[in-house]
Specification:
GO terms for molecular function: DNA-binding transcription factor activity; sequence-specific DNA binding. With 132 residues, the chain is mainly alpha-helical. It has eight helices and no strands.
């Protein structure tokens, strides 16, 4: 069980909430978990959760403590780190994870990790060489 699921369960026990809202939010999160590699937008996620995008944003933030955009970005950056560490090129990583452009991916990756994707990949490749 990940941190986000634990957070949701804690809220569910503490508050007398509407089960329908929880189903909507969990459905939206599961949709993002399955489709984060695609170029999905909030409209599509909200449709999967059977609510408007504004309602989905409010509920998601209420239950998970972060916006759906942030959650989706976290998923993508985590996957990007794994791919880059495995030796996948920056361009391939960017395109496989649904980022609009290499420039936006590079900026976002650097914001999250403090390194450019190519520097991160190089460091991970170098450390793998030492382990072998």
């Amino acid at each position: 069980m990940n941190l986000y699921q634990q957070h949701l369960l804690a809220y569910r026990q503490e508050l007398s909430t509407n089960d329908h809202q929880i189903d909507q939010i969990v459905g939206g999160r599961q949709f993002m978990d399955r489709h984060f590699r695609e170029n999905i937008d909030l409209e599509r996620v909200a449709r999967a959760a059977c609510c408007s995008k504004y309602h989905f944003i409010r509920l998601f933030k209420k239950y998970y403590g972060l916006t759906p955009h942030r959650y989706l970005t976290d998923l993508r950056i985590r996957a990007a780190r794994e791919m880059l560490a495995a030796g996948v090129s920056v361009i391939d990583t960017c395109s496989r994870l649904g980022f609009e452009s290499a420039t936006s991916f590079t900026g976002l990756f650097k914001t999250y990790t403090g390194q450019t994707p190519s520097a991160y990949r190089q460091i991970k490749q170098h450390s793998r060489a030492f382990r072998n």
